[in-house]
Amino acid sequence: MLKNIKEMVENFSPSTLYSSKLEEMSRLTELYQLYIVDTEQEEEFDHITTLIRDVFTVPVVLISLITEDRQWIKSCVGINIKEIMRDDSICQHVIADKKAIIIENMENDTRFKNHPIAIEHNIYFYVSVPLTTSKGNIIGTLCIGDHKPKSFTNHQLQLLESFSGLVVQEIEKRYALLVEAKWKDKLLQENRRYLSLVNNLQDVVIQTDEQGNISFLAPAWEDLMGYTVEETLNQSFLNFVSTANRDHFSKLFSNLVERKADNFKQVVQYITKSGKKKWLRLVFSFIYDKNKEFLGTIGTLSDLTDLVELENERQKDRDLAKKVQLSVTSNPIHHPSFKIDCEYHSSLDLSGDMYYWVQIDEGKYGVILVDVMGHGIASSLVSMSIRSLLHGLFKKVQDPVLIYKELNRHIHTLLNSPDGIISYFTAMIIYIDTNNKRVEFVNAGHPKGLMQVDDTLPHIMDKGSLPIGLMEHPPIEKGIICYPEDATILIYTDGLGDIIGDDVNQKLLLCLKEYKKTTKTLSRYVLDSVELPDKLPDDLCVISIELN
Questions:
Q1: Nearest to residue 543, comparing CAs of 401, 468, 464, 446?
Q2: Is 415 exposed, middle or buried (0-12, 13-18, 19+ CB in 10 A)?
Q3: Cα(326)–Cα(384) distance, rounded to whole angstroms?
Q4: Which of 65-69, 72-76, 227-231, 244-248 shows the lowest mean pLDDT across its residues?
């Protein structure tokens, strides 16, 4: 139930800032209609705040919504805060002035010099931009902060405003899904009784005694297995399990009984009367007396044969797709003035990480490392779609900015659907001219690479833009690094950061310092210095480039 918005606005305190009463009532009405205030933490918003933190290299990021009396925090990193009273909020100035506020040093700003956020949270740099909905209402703010003063350029402001549009898009998409879920739930309630009946008829109800002998069977057993109920009763249910599964299943079942488990779920291969193999899902509840003595089981058998066989066929398809995906990756190049190697590991059968390089001309090379959102089949298909463009694109367009624009156009034209599903990927796009000893790059929301020139401190490869596919025309900044003699470049996907943690670049700096040019490649040396888990949390790719 919506609050009495008009009464709220009429009762504002004199210290509450707003543009006009009419605009305040409009924005509060929409804010509460979106059903987002005082909701739980959500991964989608946390992903955006983390991305903003990495792009702007700041410790503090906030997504906040401004109610009639609070600045309520939907997502934040770097600060432990849930809400701020509106009258004490810096962001209420954004609501009132309808534009961003930039404070490069709070100590030099008389309005906020003694503000609680500076004193209590040690924040001296603070930028806040409005969250403006498609209806034109400012419902909140997107803020970044740092514990030290710093400058903020117009280019950075454009980037932050682009991110605020992404936050609003996520809020409005969330509301659309809530409305859709409400209608779906209504339909499900009307059909629940019918669906429950159908689902029960597909299963076989079974009961056994303490010895595992079948004491009750539903008639559906006869259609499933070919045996009559009469000839099956009083037999051990293990008699119908395939020989290959029987010993393992028997031991597992016995161990659960000894541990006084409550239930048992397992997919087991059964043999029908005609000798056909069927995969059944067993869901058993264990029955005990008041002294915890085992009396038997009751449960259901569900035929999963078609699903198991379909999954086996899909696995064959995934194996073939994996071979195809690996077949189009680039081989190492070892030229006198250019050497490139890669170490690549996928977390699943199919990966969203993709790398490619090509010699464009004598002494000129193009390199790209891509990390598509998500994992598995969907992300691998997107990466293969990108891969199909790269050879001709690098040959034709020898500029990382133009390559970014063409890939962005490709994603928006072919992959982003009208129903709001967005495909995007991060990328490091590099053009290397060894004749003129010049490296040009665009970092598209990717982890920051390192380039060490001679023995100087490494350059951070952070100039660029947003991930490709997030928006149609983002601002782009190209990085240029020249090297007089030798240079080494290290780039990687965020799977490496997931394993090493926040100090990933410090680890890579140490590898650059300690690496000796032996038979081992630099990319291999980096991975050998990291303890990889048995199961990777994300796809992992490390590329090393040596320029001599």
A1: 446
A2: middle
A3: 10
A4: 244-248
Region of 94 (left: φ > 0; alpha: ψ -120 to 50; beta: rest) is alpha
Residue 164, Cβ neighbours under 10 Å: how many? 22
Give the length of the chain: 548
- Could you tell me the CATH number of the domain that includes residue 76? 3.30.450.40
Residue 251 CA, chain-centre distance (Å), reads 40
- CA-based nearest residue to 394, from 427, 424, 429, 426: 429
Inter-residue long-range contacts of 148-153, CB under 8 Å, 24+ positions, other chains counted: 148/124, 149/104, 149/105, 149/106, 149/107, 149/108, 149/124, 149/125, 150/104, 150/125, 151/104, 152/102, 152/104, 152/125, 152/127
**For the ranges 158-172, 318-332, 386-400, 431-445, which has the lowest average pLDDT?**
318-332
Q: Residues 56-91: pLDDT tens digits? A: 999 999 999 999 999 999 999 999 899 999 988 999
Q: Are residues 434 and 391 in the same domain?
A: yes
Fill in the amino acid letter for 136: G
Question: CA geometry: angle at 9 spanning 6 and 13, to 5°?
Answer: 155
CA 66 to chain centre: 27
Residues 414, 406 contacting (CB under 8 angstroms): no
What average pLDDT does range 143-163 have in this prediction?
A: 94
Name the token pair of 111.
């309005």
**100-127 b/e (C-beta count within 10 Å ≥ 16 → b):** bbbbebbeebeebeebebbeebebbbbb
pLDDT in tens, 353-392: 788 999 999 999 999 999 887 666 777 777 788 888 888 8
Which of left, alpha, beta for 110 (phi over 0: left; psi -120 to 50: alpha)? Answer: alpha
Q: Please write the tens of the pLDDT for every residue from 95-115.
A: 999 999 999 999 888 888 888
CA distance linking residue 96 with residue 351, whole number of Å: 47
344, 224: one domain: no
> How many structural domains comprise the chain?
3
Which pLDDT score is estimated for 218? 82
* Residue-range definition of the domain harbouring residue 541: 329-547
CA distance 284 to 342: 49
Residues 349 and 490 in one domain: yes
The verdict on residue 239 lying in a domain is yes
Does 279 lie in the same domain as 365? Answer: no
Do 155 and 226 fall within a single domain? Answer: no
Residue with tokens 């670049």: 505
Predicted model pTM: 0.53
* More confidently predicted of 6 and 46: 46
